[in-house]
Design goal:
A hairpin with a 5-residue loop joins strand 4 (about 70-75) and strand 5 (about 80-85). It is elongated and about 60 Å long. About 40% of the residues lie in helices and about 25% in strands. It has 2 domains: about 20-155, Sandwich (Jelly Rolls); about 160-235, Orthogonal Bundle (Arc Repressor Mutant, subunit A). It has helices at about 20-25, 30-35, 120-130, 130-155, 160-170, 185-195, 200-210, 225-235; strands at about 40-45, 50, 60-65, 70-75, 80-85, 90, 105-110, 110-120, 170-175, 175, 180, 215, 220-225.
Length: about 240
């Protein structure tokens, strides 16, 4: 596998087994177990390429642990993470189409376990149980909506607003805003998700720091000094 990053980060909580994974999509444990037994389980390190654009796509993918980016490259060669799948999310839904090929690069954002379910196994299962098809469609639609919202934000917000908004998102849990956040990925991956370059992220963070809105600690630590000002910088309020 081709490595595209070198520094590992703590992995997210994974899913214990076939029934647990599929129960996030299907409520019937027996279906979950039956489908799960066809899954090929693969573990990847941070930055490993699972598939490249144009590769054959014979498997529906399910993230059992970690995070995986779907990455597109623009005409200037910049990488843009248009979608990020976390635990329980599907990827490569187009694999259910005949002769499908990957539409972008699939690269891990942290140490991950990805389950690969052969196209025919999914087709056979949904033919036997229409409710499974409905549940899968709902899950696929949820992933598409999240990707569309992310792409809309990339188009309508300036880079500084996207950065401030990302920090606010990382800091907010319910109605509580933490005073310090830890970026979940290196600068390069963070910039890729925001649709910009690491140099731009660094420059905008320095501007926020000079304004007294945040302070930066090390390579991933950010202290929020003025939450209200950070919220305004994000374009919210």
């Amino acid at each position: 596998m081709k490595r595209v990053a070198d520094v590992d980060v703590p992995s997210g909580q994974g899913l214990a087994g076939p029934a647990t994974v599929w129960r996030s999509v299907v409520t019937l444990p027996e279906l979950a177990s039956r489908l799960g037994r066809y899954a090929q389980q693969h573990r990847f390190r941070l930055g490993e390429r699972i598939a490249s654009v144009g590769d054959p796509a014979p498997h529906l993918l399910l993230v059992a642990r970690g995070r995986v980016h779907l990455i597109y490259h623009n005409r200037h060669g910049y990488a843009l993470a248009v979608r990020t799948a976390t635990v329980g999310n599907f990827l490569a839904e187009y694999a259910l189409l005949p002769d499908a090929r990957h539409e972008g690069d699939l690269v891990t954002a942290e140490s991950s376990e990805v389950w690969m379910i052969p196209r025919q196994a999914v087709v056979d299962a949904v033919q036997q149980d229409p409710q499974l098809a409905v549940d899968l469609l709902r899950s696929f639609a949820d992933g598409m909506v999240r990707m569309e919202l992310h792409i809309i934000d990339l188009g309508r917000l300036e880079v500084k607003q996207r950065i401030a908004g990302a920090i606010m998102h990382l800091a907010t849990r319910g109605n509580v805003t933490a005073s310090r956040v830890w970026l979940p990925a290196p600068w390069a991956a963070f910039a890729m998700w925001l649709g910009t370059t690491p140099e731009t992220v660094s420059r905008e963070l320095r501007k926020l720091a000079r304004a007294g809105i945040i302070s930066v600690h090390g390579t991933r630590g950010i202290q929020i000094l003025d939450p209200a000002a950070l919220r305004r910088a994000s374009g919210d309020g």
